[in-house]
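Backbone-to-sequence.
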């Protein structure tokens, strides 16, 4: 019984992360339309702001669309 409860909880957490990522459409976050997400633009989504430094693999202070694609994975 405990294992099934953990499995349900894990599935719910994964679904929540996937929903957050799908809600966070790159183009909707890129408010200035320059093809990059700044830290200011990322602040619209707290989970993205928390992960920003990890996602910014080239450390330029902005997220490209390919870097953003790793959000929620």
């Amino acid at each position: 019984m405990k294992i099934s409860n953990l499995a349900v909880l894990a599935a719910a957490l994964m679904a929540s992360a996937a929903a957050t990522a799908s809600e966070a459409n790159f183009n909707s976050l890129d408010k200035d339309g320059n093809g990059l997400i700044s830290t200011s633009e990322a602040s619209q989504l707290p989970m993205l702001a928390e992960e920003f430094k990890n996602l910014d693999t080239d450390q330029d202070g902005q997220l490209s669309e390919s870097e953003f694609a790793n959000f929620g994975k």
